[in-house]
Write a structure and sequence with these properties.
Length: 241
């Protein structure tokens, strides 16, 4: 969810030179956390891919119908949501990414601390509960970090973290141990690409994979990441998304 002041927009308009910052409204602000106050707003509804941006004539017709139905053009989005319900229909067999909340802290740790994940991690050691809690509470409200839980038929099956810095998102992915090896890692990354396609802050994605981590190397390659070095670094540019 984005909320911007008119002053911030005026400054972006007068200063932005990068084509990405001129085409989209927000990257100029997101990329300068030292100048603008950034905050994450999270909601408690699993909105998945729901989006009410007006891009197409159908979107405009939808917004016009909504305003007619509400009988006023000044209403909170929750009232609109209560009136129209979900537009995006989810296939129960499809992985959906939802924004992670504090309640998912233990699930993130469970996907990171099993033997296989530890072996393929950068430090090769499990993370202590207190260290994880500290890290999780710092990233969950960080506007530069996307924390997502992958849901399949209502059950959490994996996690995704994207840390965005100057337009480049570093991806970390994990599937819960009992769900690995069934195509879900690949499906999670595919859903991430859908997610990021509408994220104006992300110009490119990168991943650092342990070269002995065959499932991860293959999953990134399968969804179109290019191997950028023999050390297991992968890269995907936005125009490939
Ligand atoms: C890496 C990870 C996310 C992959 O998810 P997954 O659901 O197991 O992977 P998928 O089932 O989608 O398989 C991906 C590819 O690896 C292959 N693969 C899966 N398990 C494998 C195994 N044990 N050995 C060899 N290849 C394997 C699959 O055949 C597939 O390759 P293909 O598309 O060429 O056929 C998951 O294994 C995981 O969470 N590991 C621990 C955390 C981790 O290492 N994260 C990556 C850090 S960036």
């Amino acid at each position: 969810m984005r909320g911007l002041t008119a002053n911030a927009l005026r400054r972006a308009h007068s200063e932005a030179a990068d084509p990405v910052e001129r085409e989209h409204v927000t990257p100029f602000l997101y990329r300068r956390p030292e100048r603008f106050v950034l905050a994450n707003m999270r909601n408690d509804l699993p909105l998945g891919r729901e989006g009410w941006t007006v891009d197409t004539p159908d979107d405009l017709a939808f917004v016009r119908r909504l305003v007619d139905q509400m009988g006023d053009d000044d209403f909170p989005w929750r009232a609109a949501w209560a009136a129209v319900g979900p537009r995006a229909t989810a296939d129960p067999g499809e992985v959906q990414l939802v924004p992670a909340g504090r309640e998912h802290s233990a699930f993130f740790l469970a996907c990171r601390n099993d033997e296989e994940a530890v072996r393929h991690s950068r430090t090769h050691r499990p993370i202590a509960r207190t260290e994880h809690a500290r890290w999780f509470s710092s990233v969950i409200d960080d506007p530069g970090v996307r924390m997502r839980v992958a849901m399949l038929a209502g059950e959490p099956v994996g996690t995704i973290r994207v840390e965005v810095c100057s337009g480049v998102g570093e991806v970390g992915v994990a599937v819960a141990p009992t769900f690995r090896g069934r195509g879900l890692g690949t499906a999670l990354l595919e859903s991430l690409l859908d997610d990021v396609a509408t994220d104006p802050q992300v110009v490119a994605l990168t991943a650092s994979v342990h070269t002995g981590n065959t499932p991860s190397m293959r999953a990134f390659a399968r969804v179109g990441f290019h191997q950028a070095g023999a050390d297991g670094s992968f890269r995907l540019l936005r125009h490939d998304l």
